[in-house]
Amino acid sequence: MAALAMSFMGAVHPLGDSLAVFRIAFCLVLLVCVLALPRGGYAQTFLIGTALLGLGSALWHRIPVTEPGPVTIYQKNVLHWNAELSLLAADILSAKPDFVTLQEVSEQGEALLHALKTAYPYQHLCRFSSLSGVAVLSRLEPIDDGYCRIDYGMALITVDLPSGPHHVAAVHLSWPFPRNQAAQLKLLSSDLRKFEHPFLIGGDFNMVPWSHALTQVAKASGTQRSSPARTTFLIGSVPLAIDHIFAPGGGYVETRPLLGADHFGLVARVHPAPQTSVRINAN
């Protein structure tokens, strides 16, 4: 009960978001515990209601709420030592996305960028180390030189879509508390508010959709998370939805295979902002 209650307190302390990752598991354990209580008692009724409310707060994210949009984004954590880059490149090409957002692009992983160079000639890679970096690949020529933040992991370009300029970003945050996700998130949110155009964002956020962290990302960027939530990572047999794609009007997202990585890929067909040149919430 305590762990479940604290999983709703990410706005108070980062530990809340760490516990939110396992909210569904806490609810299922609580339902099992109910079996040890006298049937029909008030305690049993209270615990069942609490568990069902907790489950509902998480599981509704599995329901698609937005129709597919006109812009396609392929999101993938590549994995530093991926040995199936040629298969991954083929899958990306078969999906025909407008943009590709990548994480854990190692020096070895740059072979993937080379394989996609013809279809995606505009590539912006922000390298953190020989083992990792984030990248945005685009069919459209950017209208700026790109932007990098290695302290929290973001690569960003600006492109001109039919409805106006949009920033396209790849993000990679660390795991939550006791790791430094909260500090990275503070920097990311502050940064996002400084840009004037609407955002399209793909990332490995290492956080579930019902967390306070992702609420902050959506608010700071003026976007909606594409739905439904898809499992992109497994801790043992526990499925987690920790990779996400955001756009001004949300979108519909589907899962792609592992293809040598430890994260499933995502393809979202998203809705960019309507005809506009400046974000109304860019403050």
Plain-language structure description:
The protein is an alpha+beta fold and 283 residues long. The chain folds into two domains: 2-61; 65-270, Deoxyribonuclease I, Chain A (4-Layer Sandwich). It contains eight helices and 14 strands. The strands form three sheets. A six-stranded mixed sheet has the order 3-4-2-1-14-13, covered by helices on one side. A six-stranded mixed sheet has the order 5-6-7-8-12-9, with helices on one face. A two-stranded antiparallel ribbon has the order 10-11. A hairpin with a 2-residue loop joins strand 3 and strand 4 (132-138). Helix 3 (23-34) runs antiparallel to helix 4 and helix 7 runs parallel beside helix 8. The two termini are 39 Å apart. The model has no long low-confidence stretch (mean pLDDT 92).
Write the layout of secondary structure elements.
Blueprint: H1 2-6, H2 14-20, H3 23-34, H4 42-59, E1 71-77, H5 85-95, E2 99-103, H6 110-115, E3 122-129, E4 132-138, E5 147-149, E6 154-161, E7 164-172, H7 181-192, E8 199-204, H8 212-221, E9 224-225, E10 233-235, E11 238-240, E12 243-247, E13 251-256, E14 265-270
Parallel strand pairs: 1-2, 7-8
Antiparallel strand pairs: 1-14, 2-4, 3-4, 5-6, 6-7, 8-12, 9-12, 10-11, 13-14
